[in-house]
Design goal:
about 170 residues; alpha+beta; five-stranded antiparallel sheet; three-stranded antiparallel sheet; 1 helix
């Protein structure tokens, strides 16, 4: 029995076709991975903004609904001053709760001497915050408009959120 030996390799044209297929497939895979990573980052940024908005606006709404009176000290530009709420603490004593933007973060302070506590994480900035008092014959409410922005990444998103809450015994 005779064994045939092939001494023939790949031609230059076959090698170039093979390389073109491998390179184009590699480019497609890398582009697909970049698109997936970009989509994940956009989702993460939007989730962070939504979570921060939920936390901040829930606390604002709760405190406004528990307040007997609201005072708004107007600020300049898109940062709308300080919201001061007259309410009662757990012991039934009158106290003040204040909301404002300090160092690009929404903060709250219970009692006029307490520490300022941040309501949103450090990686979320607040380029805009306005408070508007709404007074009707039936009662009072406070409308809050807040703009949140993610501070990480090359092109971070921003989003506006609104909430209106009525004061205690005013509806």
């Amino acid at each position: 029995m005779m064994i045939k030996k092939w001494n023939r390799g790949l031609s230059l044209v076959e090698t170039l076709v093979y390389l073109a297929v491998v390179v184009s497939t590699s480019i497609l895979v890398v582009n697909l991975l970049l698109i997936i990573v970009g989509s994940f980052n956009a989702f993460r940024y939007n989730r962070n903004i939504g979570s921060a908005a939920t936390t901040a606006l829930s606390r604002l709404a709760r405190e406004i609904r528990l307040a007997n009176r609201a005072t708004i000290n107007e600020g300049f530009g898109s940062i709308g001053g300080v919201l001061t709420l007259e309410t009662v603490d757990v012991a039934g004593q009158p106290t003040l709760v204040e909301f404002r933007v300090l160092a690009d973060n929404l903060v709250v302070r219970e009692s006029s001497t307490g520490p300022w506590e941040p309501l949103v994480p450090d990686y979320i900035s607040i380029p805009g915050l306005t408070f508007k008092k709404i007074t009707t014959p039936v009662g009072e409410a406070v409308k809050t408009e807040i703009t949140l922005a993610e501070t990480r990444g090359p092109n971070p998103p921003t989003a506006k959120f609104y909430i209106t809450a009525g004061l205690r015994n005013s509806y």
